[in-house]
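Possible regression after last week's pipeline update?

I re-ran a chain I had predicted before the update to compare outputs. Posting the input and the new output here so someone can diff against the archived version. Not blocking, just want to make sure nothing changed silently.
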Amino acid sequence: MLFLYLHGVNEREKKPMRNRPVLLGLCMMTAMLWPLDLKPPLRWHTEEWPTKADDELSLVCLQIIRDSSLYTEGWDTLSQPEFWRSAMHLSPETVLVNLAKTRQIVDTLPLRNWQRRSDRSKKAYEDSVRQVYGLGKKDEIYFTTGRNHFYRYEPILRHIDQALGFFAEEGVDPWFAQAILLIESPGRLQYSTDGAYGAFQLMKGVAREMGLVVNDTVDEREDFESSARGAARLIKTVCLPHTRSILDKAGIEYKEDETWFKLLVLHVYHAGARNVSRVIKEMKPTKGGMQLITDLWQSKSRRFGNASQNYSQIILAAFMEIDVLLETTGIVCPAAMVPNPDHGRVPPAAMDKATASSYSF
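New output (post-update):
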């Protein structure tokens, strides 16, 4: 049993009622069984949602993964994820001038002002940036607009909770579910320019191969559970086997629970096994780890371009932004599995390195 003792929330004024603590209730906890030689790098987060009544809170335990290995391994020190975290907080009316190789931000401009400049003025500006930062002619300068209109994470916490369970039931690490939801199309049903659709952005042909019905009258990519399970099957039957094969052919050792390996799996999910295999062959890596991923960010090959490079950068940024969201609004609970009364819980076998924490939203 666990007592969660939190402050109430006044829905009218949207302010914490500091003098009126509310005992939220009891959550049945299932203890996690940890391998003795492993330290748990992941934590579950749970969320308490207000009811319609002003002064009442009902307890609904939502599971959100918090991956501390991103910090212990130093992923948070890289300039590329830090760049995307900045972009996630800026409006699309803002332009971030950044160096393509490192994503170092060198200037921030109003989009309207930049668009009003003549081509000659824009070229003069770029030349000045090259001179100041010692860039060569081949070094690219990117002008990236803010993305706070797209990357909005609070509305999708319930979806993350549901998806973690679906992936676990399919025998797939739930980490992948959260990563895909955070980056692909958070909280939206929309088509990509390539025709991918749904919360997990599945292409028609791939969705059909994964057991979904997609025809002129029915498109199960619109159904969240169907889309989630299809994505889990894609990870399990296509992305994981191909990632193993790519690394085996390159003679690179790996552990499937390592962050760099999981990021490479998601590059296969996004760009396709053939494109990732091609760029890895051209890179000629001799070992895995963070270096392989950061080298991948600097590599292009046919259909593995800028968008593909960005993919794992944004995933890292999104996980860190979720941590900030939860830290600034919630509390951390003891290490245990918190059940969700609506959707059940992710079994320990599916995520054997996790702890639980509570989030008051």
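Follow-up from reviewer: compared with the archived run. The first strand starts at residue 2 and ends at 10. Marking as no regression found.
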